[in-house]
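Structure first, sequence second, as always.
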């Protein structure tokens, strides 16, 4: 086991502060979604973060560790809770700005840039510890793919809801 840190310090505070700010923003912004859709988007952000991190941060890839050591710990769960609002806001602003068609490509590029900045800040605060030659640039196609899937999932969810409403 690799231990990077064994104290409650900046990486834990980063997770707490970002989570509190992001969830507060969700409650303060005008509501665009039903409670069910909001919860689904938050859980989707949580699950995508968990799945993607555990796909490439464990053997056979083992490209990075999350938080204080290479073993799973409580703050790793809180890291994924922190990811929830990012999926929510991706879709919130997608709807707010009525992004459609080719604009979606530009939108995903902007969000990928935003995600890369946040990951970079996360490395500075000790959230991510790269190994085996992994670099920040390697995350770009991952973010593009995951954000594309999130939008695709939302469009399907929205279309199903519209079909259900038309039948009633």
């Amino acid at each position: 086991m690799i231990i990077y840190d064994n104290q409650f310090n900046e990486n834990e505070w980063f997770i707490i502060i970002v989570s509190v700010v992001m969830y507060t923003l969700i409650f303060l912004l005008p509501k665009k979604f039903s409670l069910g859709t909001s919860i689904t988007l938050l859980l989707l952000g949580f699950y995508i973060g968990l799945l993607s991190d555990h796909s490439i941060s464990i053997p056979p890839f083992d490209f990075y560790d999350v938080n204080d050591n290479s073993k799973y710990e409580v703050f790793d769960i809180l890291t994924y809770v922190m990811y929830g609002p990012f999926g929510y806001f991706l879709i919130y602003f997608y709807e707010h700005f009525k992004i459609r068609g080719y604009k979606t490509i530009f939108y995903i590029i902007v969000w990928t840039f935003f995600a890369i900045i946040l990951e970079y800040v996360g490395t500075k605060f000790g959230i991510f510890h790269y190994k085996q030659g992994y670099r920040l640039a390697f995350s770009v196609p991952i973010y593009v793919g995951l954000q594309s899937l999130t939008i695709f999932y939302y469009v399907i969810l929205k279309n199903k809801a519209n079909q259900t409403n038309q039948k009633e």
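Margin note: The mean pLDDT is 95.
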